[in-house]
Amino acid sequence: MKYGFIHSIEEEDGAPLVINRENYYYRANWSDLTAEKQKQNIKGGDDVRVAGYVLDELGVPNIRCYADDTQEDADGEPIGWAIYWT
């Protein structure tokens, strides 16, 4: 299933995001993932630490996830948690 709020890091930046020598290829805001989960009436997965579970429940393949709360928009305003995965 394809969701419009999932971003390809490699397409946007020309290379995957590297965190601790691991490549991450996709990004989405946690708020978008949880909104979709609620829209589909999926129970559980209310903590950012279980982002992989939420992705699985939404039918989004993933091997590993990384959650980051330091993301900012173009104006430098915090956007909340961002989830990265491969």
**Cα-based radius of gyration, to the nearest Å:** 13 Å
Number of DSSP-assigned strands: 6
Low-confidence stretches: none
Strand order of the largest sheet: 1-4-6-5
* Gross geometry: globular
Q: Give the end-to-end Cα distance, rounded to a whole number of Å.
A: 16 Å
Average pLDDT over all residues: 94
Q: How much of the sequence is in beta strands?
A: 15-25%
Summarize the structure.
By secondary structure, the protein is α+β, with helices and mostly antiparallel strands. The protein has a domain at 30-85.
Task: Please characterize this protein's 3D structure.
The protein is an alpha+beta fold and 86 residues long. The protein has a domain at 30-85. Helix content is 26%, strand content 23%. The chain contains 3 helices and 6 strands. The protein has a 4-stranded antiparallel sheet with strand order 1-4-6-5. β2 and β3 form a beta hairpin. The chain is globular, with a radius of gyration of 13 Å. 15% of the residues are buried.
Please write out the topology.
Elements: E1 7-8, H1 9-13, E2 17-19, E3 22-24, E4 26-29, H2 30-39, H3 51-57, E5 65-68, E6 82-85
Helix pairs in contact: 2-3
Q: What labels would you give this structure?
A:
alpha+beta, four-stranded antiparallel beta sheet, two-stranded antiparallel sheet, about 90 residues, 6 strands, single chain, 3 helices
